[in-house]
Amino acid sequence: WESTIQRLLGDTKHFCPVALKNNNVLWPSTDKISAKYRERTYYFSTLEARESFLQNPAQFVAQREPLQPPALRIFLLGTRGSGKSTHGEWLAQKLGLFHIQFREQLQMQVIAKTSKLVPRADEIVLLESDSEHLATLIKEEMVGDDKEMENTSGNMSNIEEEVMTNEELAIKAYLSHGEALSPHILDMIVPPYFKEEPYM
């Protein structure tokens, strides 16, 4: 025979109150890590979260008004041309959310440094054929040493590479060749959309 004891759960039920307060996310907790406060049982995602709660429980529980859930966030994942932007814009408009295109945000960071877009690898072939045609036209119009012009353009690209940080070079590689971004870089880019206004 087993007796079932009804526990009176805390404000966040089976979500970690520390993650809600500190990170503005509903993070599932485990029933193995818990604490009682004012006759209510609170569950936590980690032992560190529990320790933080026990140091000052009042900051993690509802005072006068019920705790508010974090803002709705929808992640759309898919291949290029699958409709992420189209559907994302539509959903954002219908639900009153910000529409953030990850690739465009990264492009803006690189453009701030280089003043030009980073094309995808499959677009570079088209751009190179266009730029060769333009370079030929420019050379025909300009008077001067062709070698000097080539050296100048070569030096400019080297300067651009030197000025960019390792993180910016990794972002550029992601934009052009789809190379994966490290957790370190993602930790620099993504958190503002969770922790800073107006996105928070």
Automatic annotation (TrEMBL):
InterPro entries: P-loop_NTPase (IPR027417). This is Nucleoside-diphosphate kinase. It comes from Goodea atripinnis.
